[in-house]
Amino acid sequence: MLEKIREGSQGVVAKTILVLVILSFAFAGVSSYLGSNTGVPAAIVNGEEVSASELENAFQNERSRIEQQLGEMFNALAADDNYMNGIKQGVLDRLVADKLIDQAASKLGLRVSDEQIKKAIIEEPAFQTDGKFDNDRYLAVLRQLGYQTTSFRNMMRVDMTRRQLLNALVGSEFVLDGEAKQLAQVQGQTRDIRYLVVDSTPFLSTATVSDEEAQSYYDANLAQFMSPEQVSLEYVELNAADMAKNSATTDEEVKAYYDEHQSQYQTPEKRLAAHIFVAATDDESADKAKAEAIAAKLNNGEDFAEVAKTDSDDQLSAEQGGQLDWFEQGVMDPAFDEALFALQQDQISPVVKSEFGYHIIKLLDLQASQATAFADIKAKIVAQLQEKKALDVFYGLQSKLADTSYEIPDTLSETAQAVGGKVQTTALFSRDNVPAQFNNPEFIKAAFSDQVLASGMNSDVIELAPNHVIVIRMKQHTMAGTMPFADVKSGISDRLKQDKANETAREKAAEFMAQLKAGNDTLDGATLTALPNLGRFNQDIDQAITDKAFKIAAPAANSVTIDTAALATGYAVIVVDKVNEAQGINDNLINTLKQRLAPQYSEADYRAVIATLKADAEIEYPVAE
User: Which residues fall in a coiled-coil region (predicted)?
Assistant: First the structure.
């Protein structure tokens, strides 16, 4: 919806109404417009339902959009139920907002006439052929999307009515030149500063923390010490790659395989070609005549290389007497390839036509096909045979793994015995620190599934990689909760020591600041670093110093302003000597800032309107019993 606001702020909302409608509803369907829904609704907004099916369809549409955007990264995120539930909640919030907008538009008496809908359909490029409305195309697109004309028009009426309100909201927002200019002045301003960093590291050695202080901090900040849900698993694993390492092969097997498959171990024949080329032009007959004239020269005994240098249109090869490169069969243009591999060494072909023009080809040299020596290929064949044997065993064991773990779901002992493996275990891990060898979306999803955790059953067979599968079951499960004090005591002590060291640094910085305010620029054991023309987005110093430098009040004439800023490990004393006005502010910059601010203002307006409508609405989220 916020995308609609941005589009509207640029004046293009109404230009592609139908395309937006299709994108919005092609997957969600039109059930909410055509009839009532059964079951518990996802939400009830001022007495009007948002059906569960409408939510599910919209959620699947959003899921597909995110998956296309994130690619393989999405699989890892989708394994986290909390993440997906957050996405679904966001979709529901948008559906509720749409319902509120529809109701507000109805109260305001906003309507869309039949003529407006007809005009939108006629002007939609998706329904046009050669720039004109094509009724057959219109009906064909609707059939492809599964719509009837009446239901489609009704859907458009709802969406276009909603857009009337949104367009009015967007159209009422504007940015003054003064606002943009003021922002340009603030962003472009620079400051001449001096600063001094008081590092807290030297004070760490003298900082001490008692057990009582650590316990008090722990008790007052329990929310900081929440541990995530964790699980330890038992598992039985089958990996064809590991099986292949232990698969035995004899020299006789390897040699027999080599003899039976020698064609696989042949290096292909290669030919060194040269050509004289006549590039294709609009006059094909003239091109052919030129090529035949060159062929006549060669037939009369002229040297191929010399003719190539003078007559070939391929300037690069012409300098080399027409020589090209070594080619395997099937690499070049089919006509060229066929002619080249029909030649004997030093033989010249007749004129050959390709899609690029005409060629006269000479075979300069050839390398015959050769068999790779058995000794050179033996190791590769051994690996192939080991893999083949391992796969034959793997597929049989995979079936046993699936059958036994399903038939005896409350233990993995029999499963391990059936496949000749062993039951292995993992340490406790959370969704965020899965063991590297198991960091697979399907594994994570199964590890934290109800089947494994709530029911205590064996999982289904999980494919970690091709020919690498696993079945898991829960060994230990700890719910998210507060970590024991003993486990976090050391970290708390380190944090409190740092805080105390920082406090000492703050006191030292305050002393330096007092000396500077008293007019003493010569500090005891410290020197200020001058930094003229500091910009707001400077990356050369700690950002906390930059931020503070631009929050300090501008100094009066012939004076300075001084303050301190907290850093991660210490404090900084900052002196602002001068504020420099922004340079280079022109109409182009102001217009650019206006274009940037307009959608931000419109988005803020939209959020405010939705918040107001929600505040005055009765919204329920029924729960199925």
Answer: none
**Strand segments (E) across 497-547:** 529-535
- Count of residues in the chain: 625
Instruction: Read off the pTM.
Output: 0.52
106-158 per-position pLDDT tens digit: 898 888 888 998 998 898 888 888 888 888 888 888 888 777 888 888 888 88
For 491-554, list the strands marked E by DSSP: 529-535
> Facing residues of 279 across strands?
357
pLDDT in tens, 411-442: 999 999 999 999 999 999 998 889 989 988 89
List the one residue out of 528, 612, 535 whose CA is nearest residue 572. 528
**Residue range 193-252, pLDDT digits in tens:** 999 999 999 999 999 999 999 999 999 999 899 888 999 999 999 998 888 877 778 888
Contact 577, 6 (CB under 8 A): no
Cα–Cα distance for residue pair 15/1, rounded to 1 Å? 16
The single-letter DSSP state of residue 85 is H
First vs last Cα of the chain: how many Å apart?
32
Distance CA 542, CA 412 (A): 55
**Rounded-to-integer distance, Cα 406 and Cα 422, Å:** 17
DSSP strands (E only) in 514-569: 529-535, 561-567
Q: Compute the distance between CA of residue 533 and CA of residue 535 in angstroms, rounded to an integer.
A: 6
- In angstroms, rounded to a whole number, what is the distance separating the alpha carbons of residues 284 and 349? 20
Say if residues 32 and 51 touch (Cβ distance below 8 Å): yes
**399-412: buried (b, 16+ CB within 10 Å) or exposed (e) per residue?**
eebeebbeeebeeb
- CA gap 611, 145 in Å, rounded: 35
Tokens of 243: 């099986």
Let me know: does 50 contact 101? Beta carbons within 8 Å. Answer: no
